[in-house]
Amino acid sequence: MEKDARPSWDSPVEFLLACVSYAIGLGNVWRFPYLCQMHGGGGFLIPYLIMLFLEGLPLFCLELAIGQKMRLGSIGAWTAINPYLGGVGLASVMTSLYLCLYYNIINAWSFWYLFNSFQSVLPWAECPINSNRTGPIEECELATPTQYFFYRETLDISSSIEENGGVQTGQALCLLLAWVISYLFVVRGVKSTGKVVYFTATFPYVVLLIYLIWGFTLHGAINGVKYMFTPKMEQLANPTTWVNAATQIFFSLGLGFGSLIAFSSYNQYNNNFERQAVAVSIINSGTSIFASIVTFSIYGFKATINYESCLERTRILLLNTFDLAEDKITMDTVFEWIERLNATYPQQFAEISSKLETCDLEKELDTAVEGPGLAFIVYSEAIKDMPLPQLWSVLYFSMLLLLGMGSMLGNITAIITPLRDFKFLSSMSIELLNGIVCLFCLLLGLGFTTTSGSYWFTMFNDYGATFSLLFVVLVEVITVSYIYGSKRFEKDVEDMLGHRPNWYWRIMWKFISPLLLITVFVFYIVNYIRGGTPTYQAWNKELGQSVVTEYPVFGQVFIGLLLVSSISCIPLTALYVYCTRTKRGNRRRQLTVSTVSAEGLAP
Amino acid sequence: MLEKSLFLLCFSSALAKQLCAPDASDGYKVRLSIRTALGDQAYAWNEDELFLFRATLAFAMRNRISGQQFEVSNIIVCDETPRVSFWFVVTSPSNTSHLVDKEEVEEAIRKSRNRINSAFLLTDKTLEFLGIPPTLAAPVSPDTPPWLIVFGVVMGAVGAGIVVMLAFSVVQKKRKKDGKVVDEAVEEETRAKTTDNGAAGDGVYNMSFSDDERFTEM
């Protein structure tokens, strides 16, 4: 009689929505549009879709198959595949742990912005006034109000990673809330997660749709969308484009963290994961493209607003300097007036030439931003110029929250599931285990809420999960195809699905995907070595902008530690298993010798 | 007689012109952006509007310096441009050739800025006195920052949700434990029943029929 039957999803739909909710995260919103912009707009879709079919889809299906077959978390599953490679699972758990630590900070920031949207004037719309009440605060004047709100009022950022400060109360409270909600979502394992994903997977689409329709009505949005879709085909010749497409597919689908293995381990044995893998991958890429259309319409709006206010400022400057009547220069005629005035009053014009800005719509559209800067600075800047900004702000940050929370579900499940597989932890109630893990991550995550916390966040974001994941997934696919044996694996799949995987899957698993991964891996190493000392963007208070700074020695050591700690799990575990096996083997030989001798003595 | 008055008039206006000049030490430049502020409802700038301006400024001076009767004639305007900008100086009512100090004028304007703005339906930004920065409104800072209120609401709701969920799971566990005791008693009964009868019930696997092959082979 089975006492503790493995919990399972109430229906395959829940599993599908959980995968969708996990895979569709902040990267779809803030990384893909950036890559689109950098690599030639619409043309980027070609390498992106090619990589989806060559790499993303096969690896996704592979992880689902492993989880569903072994019915264990990542550590247990890989130990079952090959005892020497249990370290792959351990590396996944380590990486998921790092991710859990820093990912919820983004949710904390989203909460902070969401709560601050409930005001008559959005706090990032205007600069606060200085103590003399003569003008805005200097730092805010040099930068923009949105940047000031993010760097000063939200983060209270220090000027470098070396300078530390205290924990920010606002940040800490929001982080606490983020963890409490995460706990609430995962407290009962798949039973609670399965219900939550109905909401976290679908609501972001509602918001994106609203924003899409709204975005197209905004003034100047068409400029952005046109800019995005004009393909610059020459970018396809650049190898970086293809590598970036490969890495984007890879990270966007969340491979290697162990979350997919964990989710599918709760499936029924005969669940059709092949169809679900195809569905989730296509939904994920479709969402990326959808989100980037929205992002570009917002970009277009923001760029047009900036361009027009630049023109307006120039117009006022010309009017004031040359004392012309107000309606003489309109926004359309600014440029021809500049020429005319330059010709007729060269001396006076030379005096103001330092104050004259060059207004260029292309340049505004060209400013490509990714990451938290896009989500929290660029978007909030666009929102403050919209009519009824509080509504749009609340909608947008709720969407960010749901995207982030949905991904957190997968991250936490990736840690909890392998832990539950261990005998001594499975006796603990699931609520207690979840609580301990969440509390542990919360306490460590408080370090990211200090004044230099955002720099540590950037370090974790850039190095904590990127390189190690590539290595882990490379080992995964080589293990399954060559060490476990592709014939054996295909038989397992046939056992679960009822039919053998067709030629597409077989070729990808055995040849194409490992080859691609090796190429990307090598490229990463070469880039890293060629890049020199790793750098980060430090906010300079006096200049009111970010400055590229090198990491200090302890920072570089920590980066090295981050990389080594997860990658080294694989060889170290193999070594450990080898040692214990030989020891056990020796002991068994001793036992058999003694029993044989004992039997021989018996009458 | 007529010539004397004419001469005096010319002299005084010439003097006034001399007192008021661009970059005068005790004068201020004023700039109005009527079209920017009012758009379609903008009024045209003419002599009458200028008269209103001088009257308003005279009022501002009277407001600041009590006792002195500033008149419209004490406000001298010059260097008007199509931009609608001009310079002005303020003469003292007791001595028309003596200008009031820059600081006094600044104080007067600062004090009555709001009145001057509203007389022209303009704001601090569209009616500029170059050199006199407007005193910005004091920031309204509530006792509890608004984000904290929303945070409190959400945190309370989530906390309540967790308490409810944990209580529910504890109650469920207790119910399951009681149910298990009842179940075990029922099972023992059925087990006893089947061993008595010999005829297999639904749930108990009878071992005697499992190794059919062994017997038949014989």
Automatic annotation (TrEMBL), chain A:
Belongs to the sodium:neurotransmitter symporter (SNF) (TC 2.A.22) family. One of its GO terms (cellular component) is apical plasma membrane. It is found in: Membrane. PROSITE patterns: NA_NEUROTRAN_SYMP_1 (PS00610), NA_NEUROTRAN_SYMP_2 (PS00754), NA_NEUROTRAN_SYMP_3 (PS50267). This is Transporter. GO terms for molecular function: L-proline transmembrane transporter activity; metal ion binding; proline:sodium symporter activity. GO terms for biological process: glycine transport; L-proline import across plasma membrane. It is a multi-pass membrane protein. The chain crosses the membrane at residues 12-32, 44-62, 83-105, 169-186, 198-222, 242-266, 278-299, 394-420, 432-457, 463-486, 507-526, 553-579. InterPro entries: Na/ntran_symport (IPR000175), Neutral_aa_SLC6 (IPR002438), SNS_sf (IPR037272).
UniProtKB/TrEMBL annotation, chain B:
Coiled coil: none annotated. GO terms for cellular component: extracellular exosome; plasma membrane. Its main location: membrane. The keyword Glycoprotein applies. Residues 1-16 form the signal peptide. Keywords: Cell membrane, Glycoprotein, Membrane, Phosphoprotein, Signal, Transmembrane, Transmembrane helix. GO terms for biological process: positive regulation of amino acid transport. This is Collectrin, amino acid transport regulator.
